[in-house]
Amino acid sequence: MVKRRLLLALVIALAISGLFTFWLSHMFARSARHDAGKLRYVAPIHPMNAGDLIGAEDVHLVSWSGSVALAGAYTKPEDVTGKMLLYPIAVGEPILDRHISTAGAGLSAHIPAGMRALSLRSDEVVGVAGYLLPGTRVDVLVTLRPTTVSQDPLTSTVLQDAQVLTAGQKMQPDPEGKATRVDVVTLLVSPQDAERVVLASSQGTLHFVLRNGLDRAVAPDSSVRLSSLAPDLKPAVQTRAPSEAAHAKPVRAPLPPSPPRYSVQMIRGDKQSVETF
């Protein structure tokens, strides 16, 4: 009786073990088929910043759960090795075409197609006390001083929402956000905006206005004249331009009035005469 019970227990244990083994093998096979159907793309192992060169040790393949292929992603690490990042990228984020540059290293790699890099002089005041850092966005104002005294000086906005590419020779901002005094600031502009800013810089004084990086609105341009700041300011006397003065006829000054004359009648005996002086 005891042997029969032991034999029955052994059979039941073997059956349970077999069923459990079959269930595990089925689950592993199902998981393998599921993983085989997943897309795998190249992604960084650690956070990477703009300007970093991608090495073979910086990337690996990650599974992509989406059923649709990710446009512009890479499936082979060697396809991105040696290229430079244009934008910061997080761990596990698939690297796309727009993230990397094929134009080589240096500033030119950060210039998108159709755009230009324009360098402008700066100082502690014009450069917003040194807070023009790479990645910040600015407006550019110009103050024009006319050559004739009859016209008011004016200040106008020539460029809005421009990205700062470099501050001096730095292409990365200070991690602590510290101000840095630089002599040259490089902006990312369109060819048309580059022409406007260059013309403005040759005719007047430029100033940078720092703006919130999330504020992308373009404000209507409204020039400000000196007369609007000081309404009681008397207009200056209009003077002729040099070209007009060259062709103008000379004007003679009026002669001073003649002094008054006096007449005196002189009587000498029987003779009379009139003396005028």
Characterization of the model:
By secondary structure, the protein is α+β, with helices and mostly antiparallel strands. 21% of the residues lie in helices and 26% in strands. It contains 4 helices and 12 strands. The protein has helices at residues 2-37, 191-203, 226-229, 242-247; strands at 39-44, 59-64, 84-85, 100-101, 116-121, 137-144, 154-167, 184-189, 204-211, 224-225, 263-268, 271-276. The strands form 4 sheets. Strands 5, 6, 7, 8, 9 and 10 form a 6-stranded antiparallel beta sheet that branches. It has a two-stranded antiparallel sheet with strand order 1-2. A two-stranded antiparallel ribbon has the order 3-4. The longest helix has 36 residues, at 2-37. The mean pLDDT is 77.
Which strand-content bin applies to the residues?
Answer: 25-35%
For the termini, the CA-CA separation is 175 Å
Order of helices and strands: HEEEEEEEEHEEHHEE
Helix content: 10-25%
Give a quick account of the main beta sheet: strands, pairing sense, barrel closure.
6 strands, antiparallel
Task: Give me the Rg, rounded.
Answer: 43 Å
Which structural category do the helix and sheet elements fall into?
A: alpha+beta
Number of strands: 12
Secondary structure tally, helices: 4
Give the overall average pLDDT.
77
Segments where pLDDT lies below 50 for 5+ residues? none
> What sort of overall outline do the alpha carbons produce when their principal axes are compared?
rod-shaped
